[in-house]
């Protein structure tokens, strides 16, 4: 069984025609009688807690199993949910009877864990990024298409309010030909990332805190390519050498040999347009107000987004539509966020925005914790739907690769002084 999110892609992937379509949004909640399955949670941090809570509430999830390299963390998370249990290791989880695993571990560990889980016959939900090497993207796609198992990457920007709105507007043709787009991820290291790396990295946390910005590109790239039916085909990228001097982004200290704290990439798209992406880790910007922000310019209309304002322009007028993209605050209580660095709490307290259609979500999600501008509810439900129905989720393995590969190649370009490099085609399977 082969699963693909593109039914009839054009024969020439570099022809300038759209290369993929987006699956239609579900119109109603999944039937509780459609079936249930169990999920193993790998990594018991705050991000996994948010999704564990949503899956525990979901009527089509039967039970949770948790594992973490620190057993106490797994036990604390499992204790929050009736019937949840723990296992001592990832290997024990794969040998057990869970139907699916959700991977919330360090960014560079995702690919080997995903491949091991697929080989063990488990459906997989993975936090971003999909992988850090092109060969691993290829391997995950091959394994999902060989087995027919569900793979989903939990990219929050697919349900970013701006992306949701532009996906609909572009499908309607309201912008005409979109020839230029931007996706920026603006998150300063001082605003929560230091604490997160210290929590997960132990004494040698600085070695991993230097993770290259362009290897974490999906919150920027995915928000653009989650709205435009195209893919990136080449890139030129420049990295900015860090000057803080605190041992983070020090090439000699870095596990990744990385000294870039900011990077800017210009991508050629297969439809003839261009996309620019900024990944910023040293920036004077309060990232909690809007970490990911987007701009789209078309021949008939355009959309521009800043920290507090979103504007729709056409040839006759400019309209402030900011209110459509402001998520209502969630009623998440203090206990839910007790262990979260204050600088990161905004990511776990947002409700849905007016552009979100909540009619497809389980009723029990109405008062459930949400996050990342309303994305968590939709991502949790997407994975459940995919496993229960056998229909590929919107961000399946191929689309996940389309969101991830541009950053991997962009980082290689930055290391080569901005050399323009080709990006593999993931919309069109080779024979």
UniProtKB/TrEMBL annotation:
Where does the source fall among the domains of life? Bacteria
Q: What is this protein called?
A: Gfo/Idh/MocA family oxidoreductase
InterPro entries linked to this entry:
Gfo/Idh/MocA-like_OxRdtase_N, Gfo/Idh/MocA_oxidrdct_glycsds, NAD(P)-bd_dom_sf
Query: Does Oxidoreductase show up as a keyword for this record?
Result: yes
Q: Which residues form the Gfo/Idh/MocA-like oxidoreductase N-terminal domain?
A: 37-154
- Record keywords, A-Z: Oxidoreductase
Region of interest called Disordered, as start-end residue ranges on this chain: 1-35
Keyword Oxidoreductase in the entry? The reply is: yes
Pfam families reported for this sequence: GFO_IDH_MocA
